[in-house]
C-alpha cells in the first residue's frame, strides 16, 4: 500500500510540475503576443487616420461609415474605394483635368438627371462642396466627408445629410 501512495504522490507531483510549466509557457507566449500587438497597434496609429464617410442617396437613404480607419494620404476617392469596395464604385477618369467623375456608388447612378457630388464638413458646422476632384482631396484625421446623389439642377445647392 505504501508503494501505491508513493507512486500516486509522485504522479501528482509530476502533474503539478507539468501544469505549472505549461501555464508559465502559455503566460510567456501571451506576454510576447501582447507586446507584438501593442507594437503593431502603434504602427497602425502612425500610418492611418479615422474619418467619417457618408453616402447620401438623396432619397432619404443614408449610409454612415463612422470612425473608419484609412491609410494616411488616401484621397477621398481612394478612401471611398477602400471603404465601400472597388467593385461598388464606377467612375470615369479625365486625364486633362486629372479628375475622376463618379458615375455610380453602390449600384446607384448612371441617371443623366442626377449626379454624385463630393462634400466636406467644416468644423464651423456647415457643408462645403469640394472645389477640387475627390482624387485630389486628402481628408484629415477625424474629418467628415460625404457623397451626395442629387438632381443636377440642384447641384451644390442642397447639402448631404
Q: What is the compact description of this entry?
A:
This protein has 161 residues and is an alpha+beta fold.
Any overview of this molecule?
The longest helix has 46 residues, at 2-47. The protein has a five-stranded mixed β-sheet. A three-stranded antiparallel β-sheet has the order 3-4-5, with helices on one face. The chain has two helices and eight strands; from the N terminus they run αββαββββββ. Helices cover 34% and strands 34% of the residues. The protein starts with a helix and ends in a 10-residue tail after the last strand. It is elongated, with a radius of gyration of 28 Å. It has 161 residues and is α+β, with helices and mostly antiparallel strands. The chain has a domain at 48-154: Beta Complex (Ferric Hydroxamate Uptake Protein, Chain A, domain 1), CATH 2.170.130. The model has no long low-confidence stretch (mean pLDDT 90).
